[in-house]
Structure formats: structure tokens, C-alpha cells
Amino acid sequence: MRFLNYTSRSPAEDLALEEAIHHCVEEDASPNTWRLWQAVVPSVILGTGQECGREAHLENARMENAPVLRRHSGGGAVVIGPGAINFSAFYRFADLPGSETIRGAMYAALAPLLRMLEQSGLNVKTAGLSDIAILCADGTLRKIAGNSQARKRRSVVVHGTLLADPDWNRIDRLLRFPSSIPDYRAGRGHRDFLTSLKESNVPYQFEKFAAKLATFLPSDTITSDVPSEEELKRARVLLDEKYSRDEWNLRR
Q: What residue numbers bound the domain in which 77 lies?
């Protein structure tokens, strides 16, 4: 297992790297990997099959110079950037018991994160198809992280965005009410439905969070602050051919 704490120069490069690492794990060119990153600028990230104008306020994003990008996995739209911690777990199926199903892979891959949140004193619940939620003191269930996955023949990536200390107004400005919602949302708007590490009185600074998460990974995990040359090479190609292009990001 490798723990990769690495953020690229732009969110588009980060998404290209996500797919590049997935290719390398699939081909045994990279080890199973946990990655943490925090986008350098606010951005809207769409799921691979979503309609950009249905999920995002495109005009607001343009006025705020917030890129609207698309990842290679499913799931819903999120706002990333300062105040949001992005995490990714890349595993070969043979090394992740339970990963033969989508839900099984989701929570097997994210077990270290779930244990960390629980041991931080949070009443963690898995909710909907792929959310991590917190049972709050007032009895409401509020989402703190949304997750998605992409599956290949031999491997899976489960990645998501954890709300650390987000700009709540920015989320409202950039994201429309989603087209697909879990039952437990119960019609709530973004602010009433979401919560954060800061609101839960849990350390939310990125580097502190990364250091703590590392203690929940297997004892033989190797820590790295830079991807492999092969991963970077593939990411550059994917950035040029896909993630920097409107034909991909705004294709729907």
C-alpha cells in the first residue's frame, strides 16, 4: 500500500492523475494507493454522466473563474477547493474483499477513513448509495462526504470529497439542487443537508488530517509526496487529450 499526499498545479491535472493512477493500478504498474489532495482553486466537478447545466450554475462559475470539470467516475456534482479534502482509494479487486459489488467496494475501500472519523468521536453512518453522513446532536442525519467509483476489469477507485471547512455560500452559488437525491436528504437545501469537520469539532486542517489518516492505513504502507514517472506521464497525456477540453468537461 502507498499513501500519496500530492496535489497538482490545477484541478484538471488532479483529475487526469486520478485516472492515470487507476490505469497503473489496473496494470500492476503501481501499488494499491490511498491519495489525499486539496484543489488549489474552487472548482465544480461533475460525475461522468451528468448534464453540466442541470447540476451547476454555469454562469456563476464563469463569473467566479471556477472551472467546471468532469471526473472519470459516476456520482454527483461537488465543489472542491480550499475547505474540501479529496480522497481516493485505488485497489485491485483481489486485494479488497467485498469489492465484487459497488456498495461492498465503496465501504471496504473507505474503511480507514470511516475508522478515523469514528475514533474522532463522530457518529458516522453510511447513507444513500455512497454517502458518509453524521448523526448530529439534533437527531438529523447530515452528509459530510460524497463518494463515487470507477471500475475496471481488475481494479476500482473509490474517491470522494470530505467537507472540512467549506465556503457554504460558494456551494449555493455553484451547485444547483441535484437531479438525483437520496431519500434521507428529504428535500433539504445544501446548507441544511451538509455538515463539516469544523462543525463537528474535529481537526479539519489538511496536513493534520493527512497525518492522522496515515495512522489508520496498514503498518507496511509507504508514504510518498510525488506520483511515479509513469503516472505523471499518463496524466499529462490525459490532461491534453481529455481533462483540459470542453469536449469532455462540458460534453453534456
A: 2-249
